[in-house]
Amino acid sequence: MSLPDPMRTTSAPGARSRRDRRSFKRVELRLTGRFLTDQSEDHALVTSNVSCDGALIQSPAPPESGQQIVCYFDDLGRVVAQVVRRTPDGFAVHFNTSTLKRDKLADRLTWLLNKDTLGLEEDRGATRYAATGQAIVILQDGSQLQCRLTDISLTGAAFEALGTPPYVGDRVHTGNLLAEVVRVAGKKFAVRYLRGAEASE
Hints:
The chain is mainly beta. It has two domains: 114 residues, Thrombin, subunit H, CATH 2.40.10.220; 72 residues, Thrombin, subunit H. Helix content is 12%, strand content 43%. The protein has a six-stranded antiparallel barrel with strand order 2-3-4-7-6-5.
């Protein structure tokens, strides 16, 4: 699903400057996180504005224009992006995403923009039940993370990591199930299981 009309540009073709010619209008939204360069350098970031196809980022260590980076937004997840220009206090990026991923970003941004005004809560999709016991979560790089299982449902689970937890948006394996990390707080993190088209993306 695409962003609603207030989030989409409505100018007639040719009415915008080259600099502002974007598929989706950016909105002012402060998202914290980190980004990883192709030299494996890890830096903090804060967005000034964002859309489902790009963002303006504040950072004291902006990468070079044209460089591909991986952004880990605390409330949005993992997004591969390309730096399109540097700014006085950071840089702008274009997200390299599939249509499905872009639609998921649009849904998440819409939720983030309206959650405080409308009093929205996270939709977990199914009742979760308290659980105890040790678990091993397989991370994206194939390494194993020792965890303590804290609750579980038909659609996801929550863990407390004994080591460094994964990032929001990372794909992991819990048992035989592929899952996506949807929330991280300290050592604790939650995942939702991926099935069908999402699992094959």
